[in-house]
Amino acid sequence: MPEPADTELPLGEAAYRRLRADIVGCRLGPGERLTERGLASQLGIGVSPIRDALTRLDHEGLVRTIPRKGYQVMPLTIQSVNELFEFWAVIGPELVRRGIAGASDDQFDRARLLATKFTQVTRHDDEDTRKLALGNVEAISQFFDLLAEATGNRYLMAAHRQLIGEVMRVWTLVIESELLDLGRRVDDLDDIGDAMVRRNADRAAELIRRHIERSHARVLQVLARWPSVANAEVV
């Protein structure tokens, strides 16, 4: 695990951010068992803030409570990944459309800058490929974070908050495990820069819809090649 959480934050918030980042980044893998005391010892903080953090993560669907046994990082299955992307295909385009329409100049400029970071990733050195691919995933996540905030709709923001962590977790798992053939853009958002420059919300939403559909198909293709997960949990 990384270094202990920022002590300037309230302990519960610091523990939540740390654990969420470790789950989304797959440093705590799908299906991994967790205990309050074990995490408290690892993070160097009390059990109570850990319990508060785990409760929040349970509500977000990133962990689940196992009575009398502690907690478990939410497992992934082919079915759960399929359902995740089906729901993301409903939420993502509308979030982008409303976010661009409602964004302040500052929010829009920051989102447009992030869109320029969706880089072409080609395979050369595996470690460099991995870093570039994960950087793309992070830039896309920040792009959606900004536009979700710009919608001003608390229900859309809550749905986004839960979904984006799961989407990032799936992509991180696939990249770390297989280092996809990344000759194309990871995100398939070839024209998003132009749509952002023109502030064309409908065009950007359509590009996002295509991106989610292609991502959905590519992730399922990769997972389906793993014999151990065809009818079981991804671990």
Q: Would you kindly provide a written description of the structure presented here, covering whatever features stand out?
A:
Helix 4 crosses helix 6 (126-151) and helix 6 (126-151) runs antiparallel to helix 7 (154-178). Mean pLDDT is 83; it is low at 1-7 and 181-187. This protein has helices at 11-24, 36-43, 47-60, 78-102, 105-115, 126-151, 154-178, 192-197, 201-224; strands at residues 33-34, 63-66, 70-73, 76-77, 233-234. It is globular, with a radius of gyration of 18 Å. The chain has nine helices and five strands, in the order αβααβββααααααβ.
Summarize the structure.
With 235 residues, this protein is mostly helical. Helix content is 65%, strand content 6%.
Q: Which terms summarize this structure?
A:
3-stranded antiparallel β-sheet, single chain, 9 helices, about 240 residues, two-stranded antiparallel ribbon, 5 strands, mainly alpha, globular, about 65% helix
